[in-house]
Amino acid sequence: MIRYIIKFCLGIILIIVGYYFVSDNLQPEIIGAGILLLVDLLILDVFYDLITNQKRVFLVLKCKYLGFKNQYIRFSMSYLYRIKVKDKYLLVKSSNFPHYQLVGGKYKRLKGTQSLLRKEFEAKDDAKLATSGLMKHDYALYVPAKNAIKFLDWFNKRQDREISHWREFYEELIAGKGEILSRENFPYVNYNYVGTVTTPVKRTPGWDTYEILQYDILDLIPTPKQENELEELLEKGDTEYIKWADVELINSLGHCKREQKQLYKIGEHTKWALNIKWSKD
């Protein structure tokens, strides 16, 4: 961002100096140098960024615009498990919001990463949600908009950060928030990575901040014993902590068309994970 400002100001200064303060012999060279600097800024810097990020051109433009305004963007980087038994998906009650969602949560910032985030991206902690207990040092943080694309690129390289997805599964279903599944049958889990859902830069309702949410979507691949235990859990039915929802109920965010009422709220990111696609509604 500072590079852009310096090039722009220097280009304008050269044009003004060439036009008003130098002899006629030097005028074309000085003005031409200023114009070339502005062209370099426009084409080699801005256009190059857009070309190399053509699949996310609107994201790049928005981040650059907010960067010029010295705005911050809140990032929340998570992973979600699609645990399907027969035709229903396992949902758990959110700790922070009055809705149900897929099993999973935010990646954890490990010890060696904190200084890197501050030094390379000027990141600071998210003050909107509590950061104690199980949520301490989650990947919910604020990054200057000028560094947003650089942060996303670094995060998606999966280097120097947590990449295991076992922790949230263990905390939400085996020991921690809920003791739903047995340690005997679930000493580990297998899963396939399905895709990643990244939202555009958007306003957070009620928080007066810009944010980008990202979710890595995983499909649980249970062993025969794990599958049997999950089927037994399905037969026991819904509880206050867990719900079983089919595709139609998730896509309507908890509103049952058959009963014509909302059974319970389902987080919109659960719908995104099911469809591997962000949507406004």
Would you write up a description of this structure?
The chain has helices at 2-20, 27-52, 57-68, 113-121, 148-157, 166-174, 224-236, 247-251, 268-275, and strands spanning 72-82, 84-85, 88-93, 100-106, 124-125, 140-144, 190-198, 202-203, 210-221, 242-245, 255-256, 261-262. The protein has 281 residues and is α+β, with helices and mostly antiparallel strands. Residues 73-274 form the CD-NTase-associated protein 16 NUDIX domain. InterPro entries: Cap16_NUDIX (IPR040829). It holds the Pfam family Sa_NUDIX. Keywords: Membrane, Transmembrane, Transmembrane helix.
What's the quick description here?
With 281 residues, the chain is α+β, with helices and mostly antiparallel strands. It has helices spanning 2-20, 27-52, 57-68, 113-121, 148-157, 166-174, 224-236, 247-251, 268-275; strands spanning 72-82, 84-85, 88-93, 100-106, 124-125, 140-144, 190-198, 202-203, 210-221, 242-245, 255-256, 261-262.
What layout of secondary structure does this protein have?
Layout: H1 2-20, H2 27-52, H3 57-68, E1 72-82, E2 84-85, E3 88-93, E4 100-106, H4 113-121, E5 124-125, E6 140-144, H5 148-157, H6 166-174, E7 190-198, E8 202-203, E9 210-221, H7 224-236, E10 242-245, H8 247-251, E11 255-256, E12 261-262, H9 268-275
Parallel strand pairs: 1-9
Antiparallel strand pairs: 1-4, 1-6, 2-3, 3-4, 3-10, 5-6, 7-9, 8-9, 11-12
Helix pairs in contact: 1-2
